[in-house]
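Dear support,

I submitted the protein below through the web form. The confirmation email said the job was done, but the results page showed an empty box. After a refresh the structure appeared. I'm attaching both so you can tell me whether what I see now is the final result or a partial one.
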Amino acid sequence: FKLPSDPFKYLGWCDIEEHSVRGNQLHCPRVREGPSEEELFFRKEEHVLKKRKQVTDTEKWEKRLQENWENCAELNLSFQDLGDLYQVENFKRILRRLIRVEKLWLVDNSLTDLSAIRLPRCRELNANKNHFTSFKQLPKIPQIQHLSLAENNITTLSGISDFRHTPLESLILKRNPCEFQERYRQLVFSNLPNLKILDGIPKLPEDCSPPDVRIFYRICTIL
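What the results page shows now:
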């Protein structure tokens, strides 16, 4: 049985002696360094070494293009199931290289803090269903126009004014605790005067009223 991964396509499964477990039953085999050229020569297995080196320049270039993150304009990195610290760090390493990305989807990745990430050209960011608790934990996105943060855990609007000097037009905060804050829409629009749409609803006249103005209701008492 051949290993499916490209770097190990010239390697095969080996049965383990004196064990009932066979090599093709291992789910996470450990790949170790193979024998040296000298050892292969004495074992008369030089052909194995030649097979390993049969990687053309075209294949190397194609593999390099697969990680050409710097020139990526649109990217969907949703549902990555980032359960290990190594996965999270490698994920952030990729995000740091997205210097030209304009549309980015990061849905349902259990993300908590991307404040160290800068996306200088990002115009559309979808980070729904993550674990952000504050606007301070979002990446630096100076050119953002459409931002979706539905189903996170953002409890306060503190830090939302950082987007005042961005061209942000549309913001979605549905199913966040801050949505239940008193005068929620007025507070958002007062901090973001250029915002046109909040939670899919266009800016309304009553959204322009100052957030500190109390609304009085007429009470009718029936005896």
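Response: this is the final, complete result; the empty box was a page-load delay. The chain has five helices and seven strands.
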